[in-house]
Amino acid sequence: MEKHVFTIPNISCGHCVMAIKNELTEIKEIVSVEGNPAEKKITVEWNAPLTLEKIQDILKDIHYPATA
Ligand SMILES: [Cu+2]
């Protein structure tokens, strides 16, 4: 399992975190999504064949691009 903390400047409140969670948890390789609106961070755990790059693409598509 892989894990990464994404920094997402567009997160402004808990609803943004919920929206990201809802999108990511639809993907079967995603194991968990934890968000912190105050820090603008999302912690994601996932399994192969999903990749970090693919998650970054998805975040960009839903208008929450990650900077790290
Ligand atoms: Cu929000």
Task: Provide a descriptive summary of the structure in words.
The chain has 68 residues and is of the alpha+beta class. The protein has a domain at 29-68. It contains two helices and three strands. Strands 1-3-2 form a three-stranded antiparallel beta sheet, covered by helices on one side. The radius of gyration is 11 Å and the shape is globular. Copper (II) ion is lined by residues 12-13, 15-16.
Summary tags:
alpha+beta; 31% helix; single chain; binds copper (II) ion; 28% strand; 3-stranded antiparallel sheet
Tally of alpha and pi helices = 2
Strand order of the largest sheet: 1-3-2
Give the N-to-C terminal Cα separation. 19 Å
- Give the DSSP E fraction (strand runs of 2 or more residues): 25-35%
Helix content: 25-40%
**How many strands?**
3
What would you say about this model in short?
The protein has helices at 14-24, 52-61; strands at residues 2-7, 30-36, 41-46. The chain has 68 residues and is of the alpha+beta class. Strand 2 and strand 3 form a beta hairpin.
